[in-house]
Design brief:
Blueprint: H1 3-41, H2 50-71, H3 79-82, H4 87-122, H5 134-138, H6 140-167
Helix pairs in contact: 1-2, 2-6, 4-6
């Protein structure tokens, strides 16, 4: 197996693990909210942590699952125009959107890292019931954005190859 294929396989494994974690977090949200409803309305004993943990889980789901979804081309696209274009133009638009995605991911990596590091250094906690530190919550933004940028690079490379093939 070539080195690039092995790296791609490892990266796909990381995407799959992140997607699995996202799915588990989604199941956690669903079960904890159901438990909260039962505890609040039937036993009159609400759980104070459910809403806060669900908020954190939603942030994690977003940044853990986005690159996996991009790999599957599952993000929303406006294909009314796209299907009318020839394959070379479709590849060019795919490459263009990948470049924009890389740029946005780099911004998220930069500012997400700055904010997470700042919150870690200052020891900032959320003023909520759980008093959870914000740095681990915010750390998923640069981590997920790194993986997303890498997937946009892969995607852009594939579109570039397709564009070059269609040019021949």
């Amino acid at each position: 197996m070539k080195h690039s294929a092995r790296v791609g396989t490892i990266f796909d494994g990381i995407l799959n693990v992140f997607a699995l974690l996202s799915a588990l977090l989604l199941a956690f949200i669903m079960l904890s909210i159901c438990l909260e409803v039962v505890m609040r309305y039937f036993l009159n004993r609400p759980l104070v942590w459910v809403i806060e943990m669900s908020e954190y889980a939603l942030l994690y789901i977003t940044f853990l699952g986005t690159a996996w979804l991009l790999r599957r081309e599952g993000h929303v696209t406006v294909d009314v125009l796209l299907v009318r274009l020839n394959p070379k133009s479709q590849a060019a638009l795919g490459l263009f959107s990948s470049i924009i995605g890389i740029a946005i991911s780099l911004v998220l990596i930069w500012y997400g890292s700055e904010v997470a590091w700042d919150h870690y250094q200052r020891g900032i906690f959320k003023p909520t019931v759980l008093q959870f530190p914000t740095a681990p919550i915010l750390a998923i933004i640069p981590i997920g954005s790194i993986i997303l940028a890498m997937q946009f690079i892969r995607r852009g490379y594939l579109f570039l190859r397709k564009w070059r093939e269609d040019a021949s």
